[in-house]
C-alpha cells in the first residue's frame, strides 16, 4: 500500500475486531431504536408514517451508497499485501466525493417527478435534506470501507457510533422542544457529516482515507456500480421498505404506520448488526476466498439460532412490548410479529450470501441476486391481499430468489488464481 502507517500488521479478521464493531453496532441499534421511539411517541401513527417514509427514502439511498463501502473494502483488502500500488491507481475517497455530488444533483433535479407522491408534507425541505444527506453518506460509506480494508476497527466503530449519536441527539432535542415532524427529518440525516469529524480527530483515519487502489477510476467505478445497484436493491427491501410499501398501496394511513413500525422493530436486531458489520463480513470472505461456500456455514448457522430466538420473543412478548413502549394506537398480534421476524431472518441470510458474493468479485451475480429478490417482493406486494399479509409474504418469499442466485454463482466459480481477478 502507499501508506504503511495506515496498515496494521495483523492478518485475517480477528475476534476482537468483531467484538469492537459489535459493541459499536449495539450502541448504534440503541440509538436507532431511540429515534424511532421518540418519533412514534411524539407523532400520531399517521404522522409517524410520513416520517417513516422519509427515514426509508434516506435509508434507500444510503443503502445504495453502501456499495461504495463494499467495493472499497474489497479493493483495499486485496491490495494490502502489495509493497506499492502499481500504476494506474485511483482514490476511492475522491471518487466517493464526486459520486456524492452527482447523486445530490440527480435527486434535486428529478424531485419534481416523484417528490409530490413520496413526501406528502415538507416537500422542499425533504428533498433538500435527502440530497445533502446522501452526498455526505457516500463519503461516509467509502471511509468505512477504507477503514475495514486496513483493519482500523476502532475507528470504524467510532464512525458508526458517531453517526447514530448525532441522529439521536437531534431527535431528543426535537422531542424536548416540540419541533415536530421537521425535527425528525433533520435527525434522520444528522449523522451524514460524522465522517468529517472523524477525519479531523483521527490521524490514522486520515491516513486510511489517502490510500489508493490498483486500476483506473473507471475500473473502480465499474466494480462499484454493480455493488451500488445491488446495495440499492437491498436497501429497497431493508431501509427503503416504507417507500416500497407506499408505492404499492393506495393509502397507508394509520394502519401503515403500525405495520412499518412493527417491520422496522422486528428486523432491526438482525439487520442493523449485519449492515454495520459489512466491512467485517466482506473482509472475512475475502480472506476465505478459497472456501467460498464453506465460509458461509458458521455465519448462517449462528443467524439461524439467533433468528429462531428472535421469532419466539416476537411472538410471545412482541404485542405487549409494542403496546407498552409506543402506546395503545400501536397494536398487532403475536403471530404477525413472529412472521415479520421470520421474514427478517430471510433477508439477513440474503445479506450474508450477498457479502460472500461481492467479496468474490462476482459483481453481476451480487447485483442480479438482490434485484431478483426486490422484484419478487415488489410483485408479491401487488397481490390482492391485506396489507399485513402482503407484507409478510413479500418479505419472507422474495429473498429466496436472491439467495438462490448468490449460491449458484458461488458454487460455479472456481477459487481465484490471482488478486486482480474480475468477474
From TrEMBL:
Q: Where are the transmembrane segments?
A: 21-40, 46-69, 95-115, 127-149, 183-202, 223-245, 257-276, 296-317, 337-360, 367-387, 393-413
Compartmental location? Cell membrane
Answer yes or no on keyword Transferase.
no
Membrane topology per the entry is: Multi-pass membrane protein
The organism encoding this protein is Mycolicibacterium hodleri
What protein name does the entry list?
Integral membrane protein
The entry's keywords: Cell membrane, Membrane, Transmembrane, Transmembrane helix
Region forming the signal peptide: none
Which superkingdom is the protein from? Bacteria
Please give the GO cellular component terms listed in this UniProt entry: plasma membrane
Amino acid at each position: 500500500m502507499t501508506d504503511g502507517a495506515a496498515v496494521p500488521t495483523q492478518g485475517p479478521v480477528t475476534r476482537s475486531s468483531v467484538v469492537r464493531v459489535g459493541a459499536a453496532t449495539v450502541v448504534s441499534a440503541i440509538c436507532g431504536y431511540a429515534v424511532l421511539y421518540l418519533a412514534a411517541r411524539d407523532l400520531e401513527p399517521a404522522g409517524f408514517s410520513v416520517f417513516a417514509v422519509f427515514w426509508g427514502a434516506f435509508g434507500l439511498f444510503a443503502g445504495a451508497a453502501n456499495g461504495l463501502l463494499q467495493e472499497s473494502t474489497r479493493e483495499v483488502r486485496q491490495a494490502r499485501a502489495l509493497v506499492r500500488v502499481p500504476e494506474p491507481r485511483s482514490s476511492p475517497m475522491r471518487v466517493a466525493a464526486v459520486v456524492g455530488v452527482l447523486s445530490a444533483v440527480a435527486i434535486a433535479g428529478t424531485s419534481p417527478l416523484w417528490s409530490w407522491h413520496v413526501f406528502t408534507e415538507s416537500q422542499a425541505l425533504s428533498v433538500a435534506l435527502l440530497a445533502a444527506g446522501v452526498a455526505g453518506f457516500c463519503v461516509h460509506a467509502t471511509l468505512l470501507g477504507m477503514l475495514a480494508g486496513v483493519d482500523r476497527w476502532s475507528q470504524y466503530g467510532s464512525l458508526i457510533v458517531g453517526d447514530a449519536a448525532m441522529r439521536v441527539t437531534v431527535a431528543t432535542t426535537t422531542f424536548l422542544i416540540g419541533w415536530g415532524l421537521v425535527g425528525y427529518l433533520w435527525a434522520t440525516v444528522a449523522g451524514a457529516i460524522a465522517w468529517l469529524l472523524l477525519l479531523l480527530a483521527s490521524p490514522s483515519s486520515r491516513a486510511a482515507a489517502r490510500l489508493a487502489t490498483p486500476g483506473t477510476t473507471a475500473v473502480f467505478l465499474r466494480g462499484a456500480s454493480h455493488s451500488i445497484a445491488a446495495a440499492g436493491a437491498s436497501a429497497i427491501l431493508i431501509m427503503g421498505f416504507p417507500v416500497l410499501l407506499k408505492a404499492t398501496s393506495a393509502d397507508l394511513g394509520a394502519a401503515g404506520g403500525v405495520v412499518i413500525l412493527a417491520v422496522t422493530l422486528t428486523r432491526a436486531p438482525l439487520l442493523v448488526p449485519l449492515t454495520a458489520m459489512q466491512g467485517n463480513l466482506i473482509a472475512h470472505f475475502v480472506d476465505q476466498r478459497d472456501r467460498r461456500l464453506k465460509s458461509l456455514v458458521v455465519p448462517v448457522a449462528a443467524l439461524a439460532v439467533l433468528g429462531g430466538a428472535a421469532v419466539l420473543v416476537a411472538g410471545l412478548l412482541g404485542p405487549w412490548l409494542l403496546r407498552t413502549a409506543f402506546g395503545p394506537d400501536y397494536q398487532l398480534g403475536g403471530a404477525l410479529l413472529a412472521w415479520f421476524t421470520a421474514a427478517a431472518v430471510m433477508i439477513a441470510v440474503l445479506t450474508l450470501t450477498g457479502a460472500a458474493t461481492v467479496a468474490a468479485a462476482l459483481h453481476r451475480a451480487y447485483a442480479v441476486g438482490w434485484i431478483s429478490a426486490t422484484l419478487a417482493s415488489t410483485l408479491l406486494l401487488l397481490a390482492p391481499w391485506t396489507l399485513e399479509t402482503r407484507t409478510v409474504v413479500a418479505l419472507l418469499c422474495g429473498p429466496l430468489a436472491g439467495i438462490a442466485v448468490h449460491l449458484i454463482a458461488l458454487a460455479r466459480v472456481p477459487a481465484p488464481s490471482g488478486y486482480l481477478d474480475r468477474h
